Amino acid sequence: MLYDPPMITLLTLLAATAGAPVAVPAVTPTTAPTLDYTAAKALADADEKAMPKVAANMLRNSQAGVLDRAADACRSDEKPAPFIVVLELDEKGNATRHWRNAETNLAKCMEDKLSRTPFYFPTKVPFYISFEVSFTQ
């Protein structure tokens, strides 16, 4: 029986690497696709719309609590103006990226507070969610 040295080398290599873990590059802020506010908001709208009604209600309840705490921490004397904060959540509910559509001090503070507070464990990742803040007199 004749042996083919390249084939033996290949089989040896395959045997040596069988079961070896395969490195999968993690998505980090530097490798994640670039999103602007508009694209992130569209993803949030789609993710929220796709949720079952019961899950959406639970999400809104948890959003209300975190939003109230952020509002208490971000009191401001400036004239209130509506704004939206969008978060990208990981599997533990941590914000991995965030966006806002306003440059007011209140919007900036709320973005900071909301992006630091895990409040929801999504069933898919990344999960996009938005906080739409408006004021009535």
Protein model, in words:
- The chain has 137 residues and is of the alpha+beta class.
- 42% of the residues lie in helices and 15% in strands.
- A hairpin with a 5-residue loop joins strand 1 (83-89) and strand 2.
- Helix 3 crosses helix 4.
- The radius of gyration is 23 Å and the shape is globular.
- The termini are far apart.
- Residues 1-28 have low confidence and may be disordered.
Entry keywords:
137 residues; alpha+beta; 3 strands; 3-stranded antiparallel β-sheet; globular
Spans with pLDDT under 50 lasting ≥5 residues?
1-28
| Average predicted confidence as pLDDT | 82
Distance between the termini: 92 Å
Helix-strand pattern, N to C?
A: HHHEEHE
Shape estimate: globular
| Number of distinct helices | 4
Strand adjacency order, main sheet = 2-1-3
Helix fraction?
40-55%
Q: Which structural class do the helices and strands define?
A: alpha+beta
Major beta sheet summary: 3 strands, antiparallel
Number of strands: 3
The Cα radius of gyration reads 23 Å
Secondary-structure blueprint of this entry?
Blueprint: H1 5-17, H2 37-49, H3 53-73, E1 83-89, E2 95-100, H4 105-115, E3 127-133
Antiparallel strand pairs: 1-2, 1-3
Helix pairs in contact: 3-4
